[in-house]
Amino acid sequence: KSLYRALQNAQDFPEALPAGRKRLLELLDHTVNLTLSTSSQSSTILSIPSFSPESLNDFLQSAEDATTAKFDAYLHHRKQGSGREMFPNREYAEYWIWQSAPVKYVDGAWLGGVHRIDTLPKDRRWSKTAWQILSEELGDGDLEKNHVAVYEKLVNSVCDIGRGDERRFIDSAVNPNNDARVWTAAVSQLAVSLYADELLPEILGFNMAYELLPYHLLLTIHELRELDLDPYYFLLHVIDSGDCGHATMGLEAVVGLINAAETEEEQAELWRRVQAGFILAESLPTTPTPPSRATNRIIELFGRKAVTARPMHTSCPAEIGGKSGKTLAQWLDPDVYNQHCMVFIQALVNSRWIVRGDPKNSKLIQELRWGGRMFGAFTLEEVDALRMWIEELNDTTYLITPSKAAGAYQRFVGRTTLDRSFPPLPHTPSLPDPPPKALGRILDLPPIEL
């Protein structure tokens, strides 16, 4: 979260530049290694070992056809009486909207550095196409059409967590979103934009993957409408993804860049680099982590306890949830519990009552034992469910720390030299010193801090 904030405000945090590069290479290594290790690569872009415009077009069309067929099947099941798949109720949809904000607030950021004054002449035709996509993402100068502004309006209709570039946006007391999945995807988009000239093939591949029509986008539009929530932000991404939209423009840029290569060897390397960028985007989910079975069980458990528990806590003034927190009696008000149960669970996880992955040292479990103030309030089976849930909270799947995959990207694309530090860029202006109350030296932080 700190790196996200720093990359959003790189003019105030120049130390974020080498940290961003380091993180980007870690993510490229991880995602390339993950895809290469997949038992079946027939559904990945690696199914095209050698570049051809026809093969690439067929691959992308096949992916879109599969999405369309899946959505048609969904609509059929809904007509037969099946329930929603994305959002069981409006409360969860609102929760999902603000949990998605880290990614949506950097929409198009991966193209933020393309088509600069020092872009190589041989690349300018294709970087210009990418820049046009970026310009349209930003509303072509019209703030009302700016995709980030459209999403901000949606988020502000359900809560106030601040803008993506504000300090309070990463403050858990204001925005209790610690979902590593969305923060990691957002950081990848910000970081890749820093090296637009050096990594243009990867960025064009990254963009091509993002402009594909995903199944969850169609579900989101359909189900938000049912819940009387504005789906326009998501509708924009269906409109600009079609026959003459961003998906087509992104494909044209990739094909043009590779076809302009002077040798077969250069063309092969460019294709591998496009594949690496595509894999980076495709392997980092941009949607919030869905509630697990254990989490759903805990939500239901607290819901059952709410009726009897609320009066037991009316005299307790302590709040859970930081600056925007509530007392336990307010959280467990049975009349509104279902409206804020997901936020309550997030607040509880971030509180002193829970030690992620460590039920034994979690105050909640200690108070449920013999001698604790809540002994007997939960059955042994319910306490076991809480223990399993707390253990699960230590899942580090999307933290993606450095691993044995180091160097996988470089080996895959065949780049014999790759500076893993931050090279000086000729177009980088001199930046002011960070403000006195800066977040701290980014270089001293681990790869990602939650």
General description of the model:
A hairpin with a 5-residue loop joins strand 1 and strand 2. The chain contains 19 helices and 2 strands. The chain is elongated. It is 51% helix and 1% strand. It is mostly helical and 450 residues long.
Structural key phrases:
51% helix, mainly alpha, 450 residues, 19 helices, two-stranded antiparallel sheet
Widest sheet: strand ordering = 1-2
Extended strand count: 2
Unreliable spans: 423-450
Tally the helices: 19
Separation of the first and last Cα atoms? 6 Å
Topology:
Blueprint: H1 2-8, H2 16-36, H3 53-79, H4 90-99, H5 101-104, H6 124-137, H7 147-156, H8 180-192, H9 200-210, H10 215-226, H11 232-239, H12 246-259, H13 264-283, H14 293-309, E1 319-320, E2 326-327, H15 328-331, H16 337-349, H17 363-368, H18 380-392, H19 408-413
Antiparallel strand pairs: 1-2
Summarize this structure briefly.
By secondary structure, the protein is mainly α.
